[in-house]
């Protein structure tokens, strides 16, 4: 019981602090002012209702959007990009979002997940974007990650995006061109976002496959002149790290997609739930590819290291072979370099040319034997 009291004491100040932040935010402020709100609109029967024009977009304030929804039905879709606590506080208060989910949405760096808070679904997606590069190096950035958080309620969708890429503007326009689908409500937007993210995974997987093929060809082909065997290890390791980052985005999302496709939920239209099965199937396929990439890179890295070891062994054999050849004249010259008066052939007229000839014959014989056995 004492532990529970301590926990409540720790949580209550946080909740009071959150409430204070909410109350300090004006939900009716001018949307033309600097704001994290990228777009805010009300959709009724699959059609977007007009609002105040901001940057060539008909945009409402969150308060205006909810007022219209409560008066005439439909749902509101609010898009934000990297909001601060103060910027998001008023929206959180307006829509009754849970403080824990709000904290995750503001601070980002979350694991892909699906959580339910009362009548709101909180979904986290990690977006992956392929970074184009002319040549893969040991420091190349292959994938760039971002995040999309989605609050889905009965009559609203709030998307919070983190990262420089992964804009949902094109997705919004595409949905607006399909009123029949958009009429299904917030769950249709949630499905479209999930499908958009997973489609991005598929495109990145194809590009990463090309990079892996390139590295694999380089490893198993003859090295360029002056390039030692095993010099591709840095590139392979960097690519493996990027694939691991890719895997961290894909693997945790499997369970949320299965839940959305299999478990009945009040906030998900039954017709839309069928489409989640397709997204889950595509995600499972990408996951298998990413796991395969990781295993293939392990094999390529091991092969690269084995080639480096073989190259080192070949170098050591050559060094040993030449040392054996050099040992013959060294030994003979060492023997006849000793200062003794009574040595065989020491004062013989033809002793010097005979010794030189013997050295040449023996060295040539050793060289031919080692070369025939593949040591030279």
Can you put this structure into words, describing what you see?
Helix 9 runs antiparallel to helix 10. By secondary structure, this protein is of the alpha+beta class. The chain has helices at 2-23, 62-72, 85-95, 99-107, 169-176, 179-182, 186-220, 233-250, 254-262, 270-336, 351-372, and strands spanning 37-44, 47-48, 52-54, 57-59, 75-81, 113-117, 120-130, 143-152, 156-162. The termini are far apart. A hairpin with a 2-residue loop joins strand 1 and strand 2. It is built from eleven helices and nine strands. The strands form two sheets. Strands 2-1-5-9-8-7-6 form a seven-stranded mixed β-sheet, with helices on both faces. Strands 3-4 form a two-stranded antiparallel sheet.
Structural class: alpha+beta
Tally of DSSP helical segments: 11
- Largest sheet, spatial ordering of strands: 2-1-5-9-8-7-6
The overall pLDDT average reads: 81
Give the biggest sheet: 7 strands, mixed
Residue share in helix: 55-70%
Please write out the topology.
Blueprint: H1 2-23, E1 37-44, E2 47-48, E3 52-54, E4 57-59, H2 62-72, E5 75-81, H3 85-95, H4 99-107, E6 113-117, E7 120-130, E8 143-152, E9 156-162, H5 169-176, H6 179-182, H7 186-220, H8 233-250, H9 254-262, H10 270-336, H11 351-372
Parallel strand pairs: 5-9
Antiparallel strand pairs: 1-2, 1-5, 3-4, 6-7, 7-8, 8-9
Helix pairs in contact: 1-3, 3-4, 7-8, 7-10, 8-10, 9-10, 10-11
